[in-house]
Amino acid sequence: MKYELREGAGVQETQVRLATVVEGDERPAVDATDEPMVMTFPHLLVRELIALLALSLVLVLGALLFDAPLEELARSDKTPNPAKAPWYFLGLQELLHYYPPVISGVLLPGALIFALAIVPYFDVNIERAAFWETSRRRKLALVWAVVATLTLVFATTGAHPVWPVIGPLWATAGAATAGAATRGGSAAARWLRTRSLPFWIFVWFLLTALALTAVGIFFRGPGWSFTLPWRDGIYY
User: Where would a tag sit more exposed on the chain, N or C end, judged by fewer CB atoms within 10 A?
Assistant: First the structure.
């Protein structure tokens, strides 16, 4: 509201001017940035077709250049030793060497699937904040306490120490610790220092799966005993 005083003919006049304030609608903040959009056809389908043709070409060249490691025809009176599952199941078959079938074939895979199923119901860290960004000493102590506990569990609960799990666990913890200890400006130091906790957990699971599968493929001979492939020729 604004007032003006005017004098005229010996009379003081007051003129009132009203100002109206209009408030905007209160709405939640919305990012109005337009994302680049492309049509499914032909953009996406053409790329998928190119990827399919490239993969088919690689498979055809591999089939022409390398013989498949086939054995003799199956016989009912002869069981191969060792009898190995397809490569994508050899990680679970390797776990059978350490734990009973109920644990290695049901409980451990079921716990992993259950953990993956409930992840969307938690407050997922969308921004992927660096794990070592705050409370570095406290987190470092917590990480190695968890590593020591898991090492004790996998070293004492099975028929043998589960080295394909313990090894990747220590390798991942060592890489994460190197990220916490590095203070230099190199690209590798910055990369290790800025990784998030979900990244390190996923790396451990991935390395464990690869280690179990590799041991089952290359380092298990007759009777599922440990062997060296370059010495005994075990490649199946």
Answer: N
Per-residue pLDDT at 135? 84
Concatenate the DSSP letters of all residues of 81-106 into one string. Answer: SS----GGGHHHHHHTTTS-HHIIII
- CA neighbours within 13 Å on the CB side: how many for 184? 7
Q: Is 220 helix (H, G, I), strand (E, B) or coil?
A: strand
Write down the pTM of the prediction: 0.68
Report the b/e string of 61-95 with b at 16+ CB within 10 A. eeeeeeeeeeeeeeeeeeeeebebeeeeebbbbbb
- Identify which of 99, 83, 93 has the alpha carbon closest to the alpha carbon of residue 221: 83
Question: Are 158 and 104 in contact, with CB atoms under 8 Å apart?
Answer: no
DSSP annotation of 25: P
Question: Could you give phi then psi for residue 197, rounded to 5 degrees?
Answer: -65, -45
Q: What is the pLDDT of residues 43-55, one digit of tens each?
A: 889 999 999 999 9
Strand ranges inside the chain, DSSP E = 2-8, 11-17
Cα 170 from chain centroid? 17
Rounded to a whole number of angstroms, the CA Rg of the chain reads 32
The C-alpha atoms of residue 134 and residue 136 are separated, in whole angstroms, by: 5
**132: Cβ–Cβ under 8 A, 6 or more apart, which residues?**
139, 179, 180, 193
Nearest CA to 212 out of 166, 176, 171 is that of 166
Tokens describing residue 66: 């390398």
DSSP-derived 3-state class of residue 78:
strand
* Burial of residue 209, with CB atoms counted within 10 A of its CB: 0-12 exposed, 13-18 middle, 19 or more buried: middle
